[in-house]
Write a structure and sequence with these properties.
The protein is α+β, with helices and mostly antiparallel strands. The chain has 4 domains: 211 residues, 2-Layer Sandwich (Heat Shock Protein 90), CATH 3.30.565; 130 residues, Ribosomal Protein S5, domain 2, CATH 3.30.230.80; 91 residues, Rossmann fold (3-Layer(aba) Sandwich); 189 residues, no CATH class. Helix content is 43%, strand content 19%. A hairpin with a 5-residue loop joins strand 10 and strand 11. Helix 10 packs antiparallel against helix 11, helix 10 crosses helix 14 and helix 16 crosses helix 20. The longest helix has 40 residues. The radius of gyration is 38 Å and the shape is elongated.
């Protein structure tokens, strides 16, 4: 029997392991099983080289739980160890500079284990005692038992073990008893060990017998030793890829398509990436790519390895050349990781380009699902934009698809304004913006449909990429001002009549929190709508961007600004003006006469002061101007009160306002109820 102390430079490694690794203590099973797989594979290698002459038999790793005794045992029939090897690999732990390292990586369990090769010692995260019972494959080797209770002290004795291999027996701590549950072990094995290259056995297969599930004599292998990404694409069919996807993501829809990765120079990388159908928020779809190292599961957080926009993909990547357990900044600077990231980006862009060229119709059918990946890539990576601009599509309101170049050719003759700017008109909701789309079509314009999650930032990006181009939503202004070809139609109304008409409608606009309306007049032809509501492209886009970028919250807090444009050519607006003039003439006559005189007085005072320097204007002159302005304000207020009084009782005005609001989905609640009742009364 041998006794001794484990060779560590810290006083006690085990409290360190428990303290710093406990947050991720479930990885103990991955580490122990992986070690067993490693020992098994090494024996197989020796046998293939002729250095092991015996019978390998059925090589496998067995995991068993004894709830009564409180143990988990991981057994293999691999290399095994001699007493000398136990002393070398188990007892002599190189742990120099431990304290500095722990301070640096105290929040990262994987970092500590991976950095020092402490896989075996992860067993002490959940165990109060660990035993190694092992017999080396070497001829004449004796079986030995290593035992440690969590202190630096260990004990080695002879053991009764007839077959080669190693048993790791973990006596589970009282605060970790949940690991003795079969369901918990199944969960961990499925997460970490489902694709290990050596069969992993856990329990027996069951069958239905005499009204219940009973164990059979056949071992239950929980893993696929040759997962799809380890096989050659030439030997696989589409259904194989679909079945593997269903295995990885049982509740997901069928993927759009996939990319098989297989490269062994200048780095090793295998894997399969799937383009999923995305239905909900982007963030909910992240962390779906699983990272493996030689078929051992590592993580589903691949930021820094896979380009950011491709973290929306699903699937598996496997590479021994990716440095594990390091910071994201380190990953981003690592040459191999850069090469791998660039390779994946190229494979994705090449695949998309190939699909576009080989079957454009099918590509167009998939576009609505693909666009979020492509748009995200173009927004985040300039080099991807350079590739994607050849197959990225724009979809119009008629459901037709165009490349960037094709669409530019389509609209350049008819949608270039007098300043030489190419105007891309778009809608975000075909139904809600139907009348605006139709107005554009009547002018011979084409309207894009941009209703995707990332279309707002994409629009801003394309405006920077395209020369002398601007994107404008169809309801950002009246159609004649969206693409100005010549001077706009001038209203026949004089300034005073226009102001009175605007004042009447302005006074009756609904008072809604965080919504403001500005009324203006414009000649839009007799066939145009009598009232049109528009919203500034700039402010609306800024508010939409604020929803995606927290740093723009200033715009998000601002009220929604709308313009109510009165068509002075329309008979209904003309009749409102005529009726209002008749009804308010007597009341307004003295006020307008007074205003006329006040405005004349204001003009004289302003002219006198304009000819002087500020310091030359006397206090008396300043007081005269202030009094004149105040008198005008009083008269204007009285005038607006008279106009508002007329508007308040005029059902036609309310009906026109409500129709415009209704057309834009802005008439709700009590206002909608009043509109319905008023409409019935007007019909009767």
């Amino acid at each position: 029997m041998q006794k001794g102390n484990i060779g560590v430079t810290t006083e006690n490694i085990f409290p360190v392991i428990k303290k710093f690794l406990y947050s991720d203590h479930e990885i103990f099973l991955r580490e122990i099983v992986s070690n067993a797989v490693d020992a098994t594979q090494k024996l197989k290698t020796l046998a293939n080289k002729g250095e092991f002459k015996g019978e390998t038999g059925e090589l496998k790793v067995k995991v068993s739980v004894d709830k009564d005794n409180g143990t988990i045992t991981v057994s293999d029939n691999g290399l095994g160890m001699t007493e000398e090897e136990i002393d070398k690999y188990i007892n002599q732990i190189a742990f120099s500079g431990a304290n500095d390292f722990l301070d640096k990586y105290k929040d990262d369990a994987n970092a500590i284990i991976g950095h020092f090769g402490l896989g075996f010692y992860s067993s002490f995260m959940v165990s109060k005692k660990v035993e190694i019972i092992t017999r080396s494959y070497q001829e004449g080797a004796k079986a030995v038992k290593w035992s440690c209770d969590g202190s630096p002290s260990y004990e080695i004795t002879e053991a009764d073990k007839a077959e080669r291999g190693t048993d790791i027996v973990m006596y589970i701590d009282d605060d970790c008893k949940d690991f003795l549950e079969k369901t918990k072990i199944e969960e961990l094995l499925n997460k970490y060990c489902r694709f290990l290259p050596v069969p992993v056995v856990f329990g027996k297969k069951t069958e239905w017998k005499d009204g219940k599930q009973v164990d059979t004599d056949e071992d239950r292998v929980i893993n696929d030793t040759t997962p799809l990404w380890t096989r050659m694409p030439s030997e696989l069919k589409d259904e194989d890829y679909k079945n593997f996807y269903r295995q990885l993501y049982p509740m997901s829809d069928e993927p759009l398509f996939w990319i098989h990765l297989n490269v062994d120079f200048p780095f090793h990388l295998t894997g399969i990436l799937y383009f999923p159908k995305i239905k909900s928020n982007i963030e909910l779809q992240r962390n779906k790519i699983q990272l493996y190292c030689n078929q051992v599961y590592v993580t589903d957080s691949v930021e820094g390895i896979v380009p950011d926009f491709l973290t929306l993909l699903h699937g598996v990547i496997d590479s021994p050349d990716i440095p594990l357990n390091v910071s994201r900044s380190y990953l981003q600077s690592d040459s191999n990781v850069k090469k791998i990231s660039g390779y994946i980006t190229k494979k994705v862009s090449d695949r998309l380009q190939s699909l576009f060229k080989s079957d454009r119709k099918d590509f167009e059918q998939k576009w609505d699902d693909l666009k979020i990946f492509i748009n995200y890539g173009m927004l985040t990576q300039d080099d991807f934009y350079d590739k994607a601009k050849n197959f990225a599509l724009l979809k119009d309101c008629d459901g037709k698809y165009f490349t960037f170049e094709e669409y530019q050719t389509l609209i350049k003759d008819n949608q270039t304004d007098k300043e030489g700017q190419l105007i891309y008109l778009y809608a975000q909701d075909k139904e809600a913006q139907y009348s605006y789309i139709e107005a554009a079509r009547n002018k011979g314009y084409n309207v894009l449909l941009l209703d995707g999650q990332l279309d707002t930032p994409v629009v801003s990006m394309l405006e920077r990429k395209f020369e002398k181009s601007r994107f404008t939503r169809v309801d950002a202004d009246i159609i004649d001002r969206l693409i100005v070809k010549e001077n706009a139609n001038k209203s026949e109304l004089d300034a005073e009549k226009s102001a009175n008409l605007s004042a009447i409608f302005q006074s009756q606009m609904p008072k809604i929190d965080k919504k403001e309306y500005h009324v203006e007049t414009q000649a839009m032809g007799e066939e145009g709508m009598p009232v049109v509501i528009t919203q500034s492209e700039y402010m609306r886009r800024m508010k939409e961007m604020a929803q995606l970028q927290p740093g723009m919250s200033f715009y998000g807090e601002m009220p929604d600004m709308y313009n109510l444009v009165l068509n002075t050519d329309h008979p209904l607006i003309k009749s409102v003006l005529t009726d209002s003039e008749t009804a308010t003439a007597e009341a307004l006559k003295p006020i307008e006469a007074e205003l006329k005189g006040l405005h004349a007085r204001q003009a004289v005072l302003r002219q006198q002061q304009d000819n002087k320097k500020p310091e030359e204007i006397t206090q008396e002159e300043k007081d005269d101007m202030s009094k004149c302005n105040a008198d005008i304000e009083v008269q204007e207020k009285q005038k607006n009160e008279i106009l508002a009084g007329y508007g308040k009782e005029n059902r036609k005005i309310h009906q026109l306002i409500d129709l415009a609001l209704l057309q834009n989905g802005m008439l709700k609640g009590e206002a909608l109820s009043h509109f319905v009742k008023r409409s019935i009364d007007l019909i009767q």
